[in-house]
Design a protein that fits this description.
Two copies of one chain form a homodimer.
Chain A lengths: L1 E6 L3 E6 L6 E7 L2 E8 L4 H11 L9 E7 L4 E6 L6 H5 L14 H5 L14 H19 L5 E7 L2 E8 L2 H14 L8 E4 L5 H10 L3 E4 L5 H10 L2 E7 L2 E4 L2
Parallel strand pairs in A: 3-6, 9-10, 10-11
Antiparallel strand pairs in A: 1-2, 3-4, 5-6, 7-8, 7-9, 11-12
Helix pairs in contact in A: 1-5, 5-6, 6-7
């Protein structure tokens, strides 16, 4: 789009620039509306599957019989092989709200699908920092527009999945969804992340089963507390040659 | 807390560092639970009032007879003079979810409390960029911990309110709440913001009545579209001596 730039030193210019896309998609399960998600409109199948898993509606992608994306209506129609077991949970999502103000995932901490690790895993700081350089380089393409978050799933010394979204949460759900659709869970994998690590992001990661989250940004106190309790490795401020270990 | 830093060049050090606080507060209205909000635990009264306003439960702070904060229980008890009019809206919030994935505020676009401006207001780029320097300096205090968002409400050439939160949305709700408690709406005021301007932030701002939002970060396409439709001034990438005007 055409944008006017005002520069106090050199005056006004009009130029063409890219702009971040924001869409609202509706997830329908067996024909009923479950969630409205504000997102970057890409990888909607991965997003839907990751969202359904993170929110406790499914334990694996095998519970899904079909996914149909209708781009014009911005809907993702997910058919479950059977009705979701916990209709109590379901009701919460009929019309969602919250925009980062709400307490998603917290129920999961007290419920099923939450497996603490036996002990913190050993990790190699050099590999993580090397991968972060690759992560940053990939992000640069979209960083043009500013304000987009990225998450990557890693195995050993390489990135196996990389996704971006205007929402931190969606970026994570997209890599989770992609793994699940490939019939993988997070066991033996770890995650690189661009954004703040809140307790919600930690809970998602725990449920998925990864052993380490590393971010360029900071964790919150509740995320650290949870990480210590559950033996998930938590790394913040991974930049250049340095990183901080929070447990 | 004690953090271990690994530096590939100079080795490991252990040091004390601050960490971002994350809390979950419950907002109760006339004794019934309305919302769970993940937030930075400060200015909870402003946050509650801003949240109630932004979500369409109140039109002004005069509808509230009392606010009681119970820090130990992390609850904010709000008493309305009468029951909220629209019990249909209320139901959506009994147990919120969504963590930035949901479609908050969207209903408001189609409902009451949404006033397009007659025409875009004139603004002074120099004043905005000067205030952004002040804004950045204030943010620096908390920027130590990383990952916190800030919003400021401005009148003429000065900042009249400045608030921070781990959530972009809460930062905005806190400045809105503070203004409402002082019996002001946004008329004739404008906002500085640290984060991405999504359609949700734009809708909040419109409802509150400010005429301009300026961010250090980028707007999304939907935010620009809405801004053009409603004549709210939208400024992005306000940094140093430059800013971009999106409508």
């Amino acid at each position: 789009m055409r944008i006017k730039r005002i520069d106090l030193q050199s005056g006004e210019t009009v130029f063409e620039d890219k702009i971040i896309k924001e869409s609202i998609i509706k997830i329908l399960v067996n024909g009923s509306e479950l969630s409205n998600i504000i997102c970057s409109p890409s990888h909607l199948d991965e997003l839907a599957v990751g969202h359904l898993f993170s929110e406790g509606f499914i334990e694996s992608a095998q519970e899904i019989s079909s996914i149909k994306i209708e781009k014009d209506k911005m809907t993702v129609n997910v058919e479950f092989k059977k009705e979701p077991a916990d209709s109590g949970i379901e009701k919460q999502y009929v019309t969602t709200s919250g925009y980062g103000q709400a307490a998603s995932g917290i129920n999961l901490l007290h419920g099923k699908g939450f497996k603490p690790l036996e002990k913190p895993e050993i990790f190699d700081a050099k590999i993580i920092l090397d991968l972060f350089r690759e992560f940053q380089n990939r992000s640069v393409i979209f960083a043009e527009t500013g304000g987009v978050h990225a998450a990557a799933l890693c195995s050993d010394d390489r990135i196996i999945s990389f996704k971006e979204d205007i929402s931190r949460h969606n970026a994570v759900d997209k890599i989770i969804g992609e793994a699940l659709l490939g019939r993988k869970n997070g066991e033996g994998l770890y995650m690189l992340f661009s954004g703040r690590i809140s307790s919600e992001i930690l809970v998602k990661s725990l449920r998925f089963g990864i052993y380490l989250i590393a971010s360029r940004s900071a964790p919150t106190d509740r995320a650290v507390e949870l990480a210590v309790k559950t033996n998930i490795r938590l790394i913040g401020f991974a930049r250049g040659f340095r990183l901080n270990v929070y447990n």
